[in-house]
Design a protein that fits this description.
It is a single chain. By secondary structure, this protein is of the alpha/beta class. The protein has eleven helices and eight strands. The protein has two domains: 168 residues, NAD(P)-binding Rossmann-like Domain (Rossmann fold, 3-Layer(aba) Sandwich); 76 residues, ProC C-terminal domain-like (ProC C-terminal domain-like fold), CATH 1.10.3730.10. 28% of the residues are buried.
Length: 259
């Protein structure tokens, strides 16, 4: 089945960074009917203009949910856990087991989601920020078995952010949070540190950024297509008594690998 041909009625609750990423990715298919609940009126208006989504005329998010939830098959919770705790009673009033709820919230289990929302099944997803440009990797877990047609819809939705993998133990979602979920932050920290070093040794900022970005992109591609593991690839760069060896030694001495 061509995922792009699947007609979906989708509600995205929360128009922040990841909600926006889902909306933008899903908007590439004219078949998707995208609805949005967003408390910030200016953000809501911009999403409507930018992506031609359906929004409520109400400013109150509870009234927005009451109006839109019954219209949708898939409900994406793209909010922070503290926001969810404020709106879960309202969600519970309007959700049914005929809808698929997809949560990207870290730290809230499917058991807690089902209990809080009064439903029997929920999908939990851990995306990452490269999903904003369709280059993300997501892992997802379903609490209970779902119909094939809904699995096709979930694949369609997750493909809006990039690649995805289903896992069959929920604890892997929590573990993946520290790797793929938080990983971009670690990488950007490392890139930031490299940029500072470039400035200290007098390399132009534009050239520095290009060198750093291309180094990360090229290394990732090399790792992707090489049959060698990460350790072997690292050794290929590391000449005895060279600058790479000295840098790696400093990282080891500062316990970077165990951070």
């Amino acid at each position: 089945m061509d995922l792009a041909s699947v007609k979906l009625k989708i509600l995205v609750i929360g128009g922040g960074r990841m909600g926006n990423a889902f909306i933008e990715g899903l908007s590439h298919s004219a078949e998707n009917q995208i609805h949005v609940v967003e408390p910030n009126s200016s953000v809501k208006a911009k999403l409507k203009i930018d992506f031609d989504v359906t929004v409520s005329n109400y400013d109150d998010p509870e009234k927005q949910m009451g109006e839109i939830i019954p219209l949708c098959e898939y409900v994406l919770l793209c909010v922070k856990p503290q926001v969810f705790n404020k709106i879960k009673k309202t969600l519970k009033n309007f959700l049914s087991d005929n809808q698929i709820v997809i949560s990207i919230m870290a730290g809230i289990s499917t058991d807690n989601l089902c209990e809080g929302l009064g439903i029997k099944n929920v999908i939990r997803v851990m995306p990452n920020t490269p999903g904003q440009i369709g280059k993300g990797i997501s892992v997802w877990y379903k609490k209970n078995k779902i119909d094939f047609k809904f699995e096709e819809g979930i694949n369609n939705i997750l493909s809006a952010l990039g690649e995805f993998e289903e896992v069959y133990e929920e604890e892997i979602i929590d573990k993946a949070t520290a790797i793929s979920g938080s990983g971009p932050g670690y990488i950007f920290y490392f890139m930031e540190s490299m940029l500072k070093s470039c400035k200290e040794i007098g390399i132009d900022e534009n050239l520095s950024k290009k060198l750093i970005i291309k180094t990360f992109l090229g290394s990732a591609e090399l790792a992707k297509f090489s049959e060698k593991d990460f350790e072997e690839l690292k050794k290929e760069v590391t000449s005895p008594n060279g600058t790479t060896e000295a840098g790696l030694k400093t990282m080891t001495e500062n316990n970077l690998g165990n951070a």
